[in-house]
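Trying the structure run again after the queue cleared.
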Amino acid sequence: MSPDDDPSLRNPAGCPYCGRPVYWIPNRWFGRGCFQCETCGDFPDFSGAGAPRSPSGEWLVGAPPARSKTDDRVRVLLVDDSTEHRDLYAMMLEDFASVTTASRGEDALVIAGAEPPDAIILDVMMPGLDGWRVCECLRANPITARIPVIMLTSLDTADMTARAREAGAAAVLMKPCPVERLVLTLNASIRPEAARR
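Done. Tokens:
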């Protein structure tokens, strides 16, 4: 049954841009469903609300069940002032890692100090403390000094690798970064650190 045939599959709020009806499409984005406007395109469902449900709570369109989370995944702190980037990279990493996010460098320092993750993915350009300064602060704190930091940036300058090394980062990757490359870099950064513990 298509959304055109069944009005219950339409999102009553409509498209946030044009106001037209949006429809639930299961398994569209990395195994997750999304809402789709015929004019404006796809809108990933970051709310976790998922597909429309019947009054009894059953899925109306065969959406996949929630993925089970295991505790043996790598713990990653993802720091980026862009909500879109945080949500996108967290979603892309969810099968590999248990991801905690922060939107500011100051918050990242508090989170990392309270419950040190296995690795930190850190945006360079942020208001307040930028990624370089956050990385330096992490290195100066004995609790967080050994956590591998991966800088993720849209800056493309010749001295980026040297600057990352100077700040104490394990690696620097350019945005947009494919999830495969990010996972490989996380694995390469975490393994040597785990061997030292």
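The beta strands are 10-11, 22-29, 32-37, 41-44, 74-79, 97-102, 119-123, 149-153, 171-174. Worth checking whether this holds up in the mutant runs.
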